[in-house]
Amino acid sequence: MAIHKLVLDDVDSDLFTLIAIHCTLEDYRIAYLLNKFLGITLSRKADDLDFKNGALTYAIFEWEDCKQQTLWNLVSNVCKTESFREANTGSLFSIQEKITQVNHLIPEYKSVNYFLKIDNDYSFSKEKYILNSILKIPQVATAYSIQPNQLKSKDHLIFS
Length: 160
Prior knowledge:
Elements: E1 16-23, H1 27-38, E2 43-44, E3 49-51, E4 56-58, E5 60-65, E6 70-76, E7 78-87, E8 95-104, E9 114-120, H2 127-135, E10 140-146
Antiparallel strand pairs: 1-9, 1-10, 2-5, 3-4, 5-6, 6-9, 7-8
């Protein structure tokens, strides 16, 4: 009997563009400004991106361009969680300290506030135009492209 071996080399090829955005705006404000400057229609998804069974949630916006067969996602890279801890002061009364912990969707890029992911089954040639349009937004400090194959945690960018 013959042995058949399947080689899946091409499955890992990245068919999306990833743009890092540095700004201090709220997620809905940056989505509005991207819609305005890029002529797209990002809208907040019903459910946030969920990690660790609801312990970490990241805001996500989506728009499907049927003409270009492109799916646009704007996702927050920062999730802040608050917890309370009993402080040992040695006194009669217990005091609770509030601890704010900051988690990142892509830990390699901790200074990035948002990622714009553009999924396309074909080659996407408008990356430079999109970057220039994003950089025209006055509230954006900087934006740049990231090569997805260089990310260690690119599995966090699978939203479906």
